[in-house]
Specification:
The chain folds into three domains: about 1-195, Uridine Diphospho-n-acetylenolpyruvylglucosamine Reductase, domain 3 (2-Layer Sandwich), CATH 3.30.465; about 195-285, Alpha-Beta Plaits, CATH 3.30.70; about 290-370, Alpha-Beta Plaits (2-Layer Sandwich). Helices cover about 30% and strands about 25% of the residues. It has 13 helices and 19 strands. The protein has helices at about 25-40, 90-100, 120-125, 130-135, 135-140, 170-175, 205-220, 245-260, 270-285, 300-315, 340-355, 365-370, 385-395, and strands at about 5, 20, 45, 65, 75-80, 85, 105, 140-145, 155, 180-190, 190, 195-205, 225-230, 235-245, 270, 290-295, 320-325, 330-335, 360-365. The chain binds flavin-adenine dinucleotide (FAD).
């Protein structure tokens, strides 16, 4: 195993700096690094591309960081089975490039694909508008190996889509932020690249109209690949993308226009350059900072969610936001007008969302805002179970301590 190097500010997580940094070149070295941390009882956290280290609270303490960037190989690709096995440090862009000659892809589209890694996508739930049809990493992972806090290698799932053997450990790791173990490899199910795609835009809709149109699409059994509603100062600009074979795509476009009713007046199919610009605008809405939040609301309560969004954005002048209205998930961000103002607005928005079963989590924020706003908000009803799981897999509480819900 290559010896760890001294940590520096650049290795820190939310201002908490490690003494040591391990950069394993593969699973065996990663295991040795975790065994060294267990032997010396070091508090350790994991870094992939580092694009989502802002999600969660600062660690309560940190002795070491393990960076997965050198573990970046495609270990196995079975095009006919549409599955791939990769090391956790491979970036999404590198993976997509390896799959392209087979006209296949991993159907995940978070921002920064050139930095986001397979392990980070799984452990931070990285997703984009394609989650509308293909789900999140949780739905695309079919197997994973990880190293427990005690340095023991464990794995769950398999290399075929239909695999029900044993505990569904890969899904347990989903969204765990590195609090349950170090993921070393991931098996993903893949999808074919679409032959055609078409985007329709319906600008200036009310949240009620968006909710209605989403319901009408479901009623009409339309299967959009991606649906996004971009905040436009209180109204929403709706984007709907269909993907697949030509006739199927055109058929769905026609059927959507048929059910769009009044929305049809302002909407229609975009030419490819306009479609690309519209999805880029959606992307920007997810990337503005330095304050960024992830929001959830049941799709049937989109009006409540959008009012809460308005409350938050009032403290983020020039801010932006986007909903995925079929999923009830959204992102909002911008530059705070003041630390107190944005912490209060986020608290109010969080309260409003909670009245309809929603929540707000902080994806990133300046320290003065974090000092006033917990990243997660009220603990979920599942906290006791989550604590028991943590105690099983990390009895000493040394993995990413304090980062997760309820201070896990
Ligand atoms: C401006 C901006 C906008 C963003 N917008 C979105 C968005 O719209 N949608 C979205 O989903 N994401 C968004 N992200 C986050 C990000 O792109 C994804 O979540 C990405 O998947 C994270 O991958 P990563 O490799 O960079 O993870 P990292 O940031 O390195 O890690 C993320 C978390 O996972 C843990 N982790 C990483 N690798 C491992 C491993 N091998 N084993 C165990 N734990 C591990 C880390 O400890 C950390 O807690 C945004 C990020 C930025 C900076």
């Amino acid at each position: 195993m290559s010896a760890p190097r001294p940590g520096s500010g650049a290795d820190g997580i939310l201002g908490v700096e490690p003494r040591l940094v391990f950069e394993p070149a593969g699973e065996a070295e990663a295991r040795e690094a975790m065994q060294a941390c267990a032997r010396d009882r070091l508090r350790v956290a994991f870094v992939g591309g580092g694009t989502d280290l802002g999600l969660g609270n600062p660690p309560s303490g940190l002795d070491a960081v393990i960076r997965t960037g050198r573990m970046a190989r495609v270990l196995e690709h079975a095009p006919h089975d549409q599955i791939v096995r990769v090391e956790a440090g491979i970036t999404l862009s590198a993976l997509q490039a390896a799959l392209l000659p087979h006209r296949q892809r991993l159907a995940l589209d978070p921002p920064f694909p050139a930095r986001a890694t397979a392990g980070g996508l799984l452990c931070a739930n990285g997703f984009g508008p394609l989650r509308t049809a293909r789900g999140s990493a949780r739905d695309l992972v079919i197997g994973a190996t990880f190293i427990r806090a005690d340095g023991v290698l464990a794995h769950g799932g398999g290399k075929v889509v239909k695999n029900v053997a044993g505990f569904d450990l890969p899904r347990l790791l989903f969204g765990s932020l590195g609090t349950l173990g170090l993921v070393t490899s991931v098996n993903f199910r893949l999808h074919p690249l679409p032959e055609e795609e078409a985007t329709l835009a319906f600008p200036g809709l009310s949240p009620a109209a968006v909710r209605g149109l989403v319901g009408d699409m479901r009623q009409a059994q339309l299967e959009p690949a991606a649906v996004a509603a971009i905040w436009a100062g209180g109204s929403l600009d709706l984007l709907v993308r269909f993907e697949g074979f030509g006739p199927g795509v055109s058929g769905q476009v026609e059927r959507l226009l048929a059910v769009a009713g009044k929305a049809r007046a302002s909407g229609g199919r975009l030419a490819p350059p306009q479609a690309a610009a519209a999805w880029a605008r959606q992307q920007t809405a997810r990337e503005v900072g330095p304050f960024r939040a992830r929001l959830a609301i049941p799709p049937a309560s989109l009006e409540v969610g959008t009012r809460a969004l308005g409350t938050l954005l009032a403290a983020l002048p020039g801010g932006a936001a986007v909903w995925y209205p079929t999923l009830g998930l959204g992102f909002a961000g911008g530059a705070p007008s003041g630390a107190e103002a944005v912490a209060t607005a986020a608290g109010d928005a969080r309260g409003a969302l909670a009245t309809s079963g929603g929540w707000l989590a902080v994806n990133d924020a300046p320290p003065e805002v974090r000092a006033r706003l917990d990243a997660w908000g009220p603990a979920p009803a599942t906290l006791a179970l989550q604590r028991r799981l943590k105690a099983q897999l990390d009895p000493e509480g040394r993995l990413a301590p304090g980062r997760f819900v309820g201070g896990i």
